[in-house]
Amino acid sequence: MAAYTCMDNTLHRMVKPVNRADRSPDADDDLLQVTGLSRYFTAGGHRQAVFDDLNLVARRGQVVALLGASGSGKTTLLNLISGIDTPDSGSVHIDGIDVHAVGEPGRTLLRRRDIGFVFQFFNLIPTLTVGENIALPLELIGSDARQVQLRVQQLLGQVGLPDVANRFPETLSGGEQQRIAVARALAHRPKLLLADEPTGNLDEDTGRQVFGLLRDMARQHHTTLLVVTHSQQVATAADRVLTLRQGGIHTV
Amino acid sequence: MIRRTVSPLLLRAGLRHHIRHRWQALLALVGVMMGVAVVIAVDLANAAASASFAQSASQLRGAATHRLIGSQGYLPQALYTDLFTTPGHPPMAPVISTRVRVEGLPGRFRLIGIDPLAEGSMRRDLSSAISGTDDLRIWLSRPGVAALSTSAADHLGVTIGDSLPIRHQGNPYRLEILAIGVDDSLASRDLLVTDIATAQALSGMRETISHIDLILDAAAEAWLAGRLPASARLLSVNEQTQGIVGLSAAFELNLTAMSLLAMLVGAFLIFNALSLSIVQRRNLLGRLRALGVTGAQIHHLIVAEAMALGIVGTLLGSLLGIALGQGLTTLVAATVSELYYDVPADALQLNAWSLAKGALLGLGGTVLAAWFPATQAARTAPLTTLSRAALEQSTRHRLPRLGIAGAVMMPAGLLLAFVAPGGVIAGFAGLFVVLLGAALLTPLALHLVHGALDRLPIRGVWRMAARDLDRHLSRLGTAGAALMVALAASVGVAVMVESMRSAVGEWLGDLLSADLYIASEAFDDAATLPQSIVTQAPHLAPVSAASYYRNRTLHDGNRRITLVAADLAAQSRTGFDFVAQIDGDLWQRFASGEVLISEPFARRSKLNPGDVLHLPTPAGDAGFPVAAVFRDYASEHGRVFIARPHYLAHWSDTAVNTVALFSDQGAAALLQAVSAQFATEDGLVFTAARAIYDESMAVFDRTFRITEALRLLSLLVAFVGILSALMAVQLERRKEFAVLRALGLTRWQLSQLIVVESALIGVLAALLAIPAGLLMAWVLTAAIQLRAFGWSMPFVLGATPLWSALALGTGAAVLAALYPAWRASMHDPAPQLRED
Q: Pairing state of beta strands B66-70 and B211-214?
């Protein structure tokens, strides 16, 4: 664990926050700031814009739903925000840190420390037990074994699955797996939670339950939740609804 | 360091992945295991042969620190007498050493004659076997008594008092068993010990002895130095043992290189297995990168997994290597005994250094093989690892770089093999670089062939299979490369052996120009022919011409020189194939005292025609101009031919070992005449050229049995690799197959698709292996054989190795595809279509 702390300290030094004096008065409440973001793809010799000069702000603890048709760039936007993908122009700031100015090691640290993910197809590690899946983000940030164990038990209780710690993911139903994914995403108390179609692979009732759990736990942790969805139901339960259309963001 | 930078949870996840895909992991394990086993088995066998000889020599020399030998292969008895009677002499003991046959038993036995009164502290165990007063009295007074070890007595089936019939150079003799050593430190089951007088009598070494063993310190050495004649050489016992053991160094190095080839193929399997497991886990790796796992952590994780596989494979391989080593030891000991020096047929001696070497290679090879896949996994950005299409695209983007690297490595390897200093090791290093270069070119070749096949008017599963070659290049490229390497090695070794066989056969055919050869059945330097044979045989009615040969082994320091004094008929001269000679009438120069040296001798001694060769003669060193260098495969240490009159002038030795007879009436008529004339002579063999040719080629084939065994092992390792790759690929494509079944592909068509894909890989790997293998054969033939043995030989290309490679490659690939094809066709597509 000492090695992780050492690595953590090293990466922290590479990730420098924006000078608070340069921020606007309301900036302290804004966790996520996307400014002038553009992303293009080349297909068949033609350059096509996924989005162009996109701007987006999300406040701390806010639940933001992002709607859009298939191919509108919702997943691409999440990848750009998390640092998995790099934009052609523009910037993404998470809690004052310019995501794309810190280099790949810095982005890795950001994802490890400040971002949680929930995917449509759960994406649990099949060769780790449920408990180990939840523990993984905690181990990555260097938590000690006792803290990890307590946190895992706490989260399993919160998602309503207190007895499945030693089972493997494939023995659980889809809804149960997505609950575990939510627990994993929040284990390390991230500032930002990115959910890409979290209910897309679930039936309506289960999806409603899972999203409710996701939203409530995010609020409980004061985590900003940005959820990409096709579901109007999910959109209705969000604090803000944005639509990605024709390369731009529109408020609904 | 790995423990601190690899998350225990990640390592656990990785190892469980391998347990879940246990067949894939098992096949990779088998690759490491077999590679390590072959390396250890060969190393143990090599070490056992030389250690066994050294141990046997050590037992025989007892406390002796030095040995005095004659440059002519013997010492005058008078020298010993002079030294022994000089006050202040160091402890010394004379020895006669020769070989005999025991009636009714195959092979030859060593017979040494000692003087128990001089032995003293030299060989306590040996002299203690006859230390009783009565025994000693009998030993000294009764000729023909012998002592032997318990194991020798058991082997011969004799006890004290028994009479043992033996033959020395065909002459019969009887030994009476006086003593059997209860202390088996003599240890050898092929050793007979007699009194020195008995040994002199039966060996005909009147007034001469084989060597003198001495116990010397610095002062004694100085005392001795001023009292030795020019023809005597003083060697430390280690120098002498190393000199003998070094005779087989090149042979053992070749075996080691073949075993390293098996290890290389095994390492390829690790590379293959890890690359496939990374491809299979690409989504998982993407998730981990998204969760904040660094590229370095992924790199360490992959290497740690490989280490775990490597440790288990190495442990199992070590056990298998010890088991294989016993059989190989017997084979190597037999070959070394046949070609170089006698090795007692002892049990395998476990050798920590051999095991350590195998372990190091197994672990090191595993880590090395894992490094590139681990680096690729670590460097790939999270987005790429989440996208299958991007992965294949990234693989195709790398193809030009791989191709350039391969294209550069192949000529670089050739330069290393042919030009760089460093002897045989540089040769083999170059060979491996060439092979690796060819492996790097394989994926590019698959891509290009796919492009060509795409233009052909093929349909159905054939078109789908051809297209899949390119679509799954990241997975199939490595499997194809592994199969290509194994097939290329197989082609290369087969062509090299065939070239060598052809060269040796042609050389023997030219050399054995006489119709009949007369020699002693003992076939060693001391086995000379009776003078009656030498004088009468050429005058028999059917004989039209005769050649005479006298073989001697000269000792120059710890260097041995085989000298052949020849009186050559004109027909015998046509058997020489000269590779270099000075201008003028060559045979006139030979007749005037210049010598002919063989190619290996020229290379080792760095002599060319026109240079002067110094040989130890009874009167001291003498210089002999070199007239020519001839091609000779009789020994990699080489031979020197000198005209018999000039030999007589320097050595005063009229003995003859072999007479070669020519006849216009043919071998049968000669044999009849010779047999009738010399019916009463014992211990002679009359052999037609054809029989010598057949026996020599049989020795050649026996010598290469080991190489053949290693070649087959490499192929087996490659088969395991292709099976592993195909099973992994089919596993990963379950969903794709489910979609194809849903779209209307029948089970039979799906099986066909998998088998045809695999067959295409096999055929392409074989087609690539053929030029790579031929290149390898060229390096083996023209560079390594020359560097190791000093032999040059023409490159002979037969069709058999090429067709074999094609058949083996296609057959192995199709066989390997049958089970995966059956499994894939039997899977229910529905669950796959439901999964993400």
A: antiparallel
